[in-house]
Write a structure and sequence with these properties.
- Strands 3, 4, 5, 8, 9, 16 and 17 form a seven-stranded mixed sheet that branches. A six-stranded parallel sheet has the order 12-11-10-13-14-15, sandwiched between helices.
- It has ten helices and 17 strands.
- It folds into two domains: 157 residues, Medium-chain alcohol dehydrogenases, catalytic domain (Quinone Oxidoreductase, Chain A, domain 1), CATH 3.90.180.10; 124 residues, 3-Layer(aba) Sandwich (Rossmann fold), CATH 3.40.50.
- It is 25% helix and 27% strand.
- Helix 4 crosses helix 5 and helix 4 packs across helix 9.
- The chain starts with a strand and ends with a strand.
- With 321 residues, the chain is of the alpha/beta class.
- A hairpin with a 2-residue loop joins strand 1 and strand 2.
Length: 321
């Protein structure tokens, strides 16, 4: 099997890997498209000691399912957390925080930068016919954007600042528009600014951010500097939603004493609900396909990752066929 391999923070292309075989309750998925995420870039930097096939954003087709043959041929996306079902978190209906979880392409489970992957049938969600592969490959990222609305209440009177106008920041902004809140996005690059302007979403550059002016600040820059700016921008008793992941303790650049004094609420935000994400895509209320920057073959792994890490780059996809 052909795949992208990560080991000791070094990426390589391999064509000698065995095709995975689904165990009880799992399905084999032929990957159509897979997207490079900020987390994948951080894995290469050493964010988490992963060895194997990275990648967790994908759309594909079930080609084998011993325990669900009726699902063969379904086009699917996948919930990336594989829960044990028996730990305290699972029994408390918190499967994405399973104490023994595997995470597709991130923790103890080979991922989507390959011709095939395996996931439990319960993790695989059918893609509506009206949703193209180009849109469906964003389902996991869009679900992560929607998780914010699951975690905090957003009112139309709220002043909201999204820090970062890259892949995730653009989708977060698109999901907030229907709430009719006072929304502004910090966008650094011309292509990001143009995408926001096309959707009539207000944007500013970082130097124009006013201190303590926002009720809610969503940090999605992928940089520890974004956390510092978030703290400066949020009002006392405001809320900061953290979407970025950093290597080691880079996030400690924040003055936590000031967080205590101003009674700031910090909300960590990770994975989100797939059903509403797919519904938004089916209803064409969100258009993620405009974020596609380039496509690469699996054998172009280094070039693809270099492009994804370039300033202002948007979504880079692997095509596996």
């Amino acid at each position: 099997m052909r795949a992208v391999w990560l080991e000791n923070r070094i990426l390589s292309y391999r064509d000698d890997l065995p095709q995975p075989e689904p165990i009880a309750g799992e399905a084999l998925v032929k990957v159509h498209l897979a997207g490079i995420c900020g987390t994948d870039l951080e894995l290469v930097k050493g964010y988490y000691p992963f060895r194997g096939i990275p990648g967790h954003e994908f759309v594909g087709e079930i080609v084998s399912a011993p325990d669900g043959p009726h699902r063969i041929g379904q086009r699917v996306v996948g919930e990336i957390n594989i829960a044990c079902g028996s730990c305290r978190s699972c029994l408390a209906a918190r499967p994405t925080h399973c104490e023994n979880r595997e995470v597709l392409g991130i923790k103890n489970r080979n991922g989507a930068f390959a011709e095939y992957l395996c996931l439990p049938l319960k993790n695989l969600i059918a893609v509506p016919d009206a949703v193209s592969d180009d849109a469906a490959v964003f389902a996991e990222l869009l679900a992560a954007a929607l998780e914010i609305q699951e975690q905090i209440q957003i009112r139309s009177t709220d002043r909201i600042l999204v820090l970062g106008a890259g892949r995730l920041g653009q989708l977060i902004a698109q999901t907030l528009v229907p709430l009719d809140c006072d929304l502004t996005v910090v966008a650094r690059y011309k292509n990001q600014q143009a995408l926001l302007a096309d959707r009539h979403i207000a944007w500013i550059e970082a130097h124009a951010v006013r201190g303590q002016a926002f009720d809610i600040v969503i940090e999605a820059t992928g940089s520890a500097d974004g956390l510092v700016l978030a703290r400066q921008a949020v009002r006392p008793r405001g809320t900061i939603v953290l979407k970025s992941t950093y290597k080691e303790n880079e996030s400690l650049a924040m003055d936590f004493s000031a967080v205590v004094v101003d009674e700031i609420t910090l909300v960590g935000s990770r994975c989100g609900p797939f059903a509403p994400a797919l519904q938004l895509l089916e209803d064409r209320l969100v258009d993620p396909s405009v974020l596609i920057d380039s496509r690469y073959g699996l054998n172009e792994a280094m070039k693809a990752f270099e492009h994804a890490a370039a300033p202002g780059a948007l979504k880079i996809l692997f095509r596996t066929t």
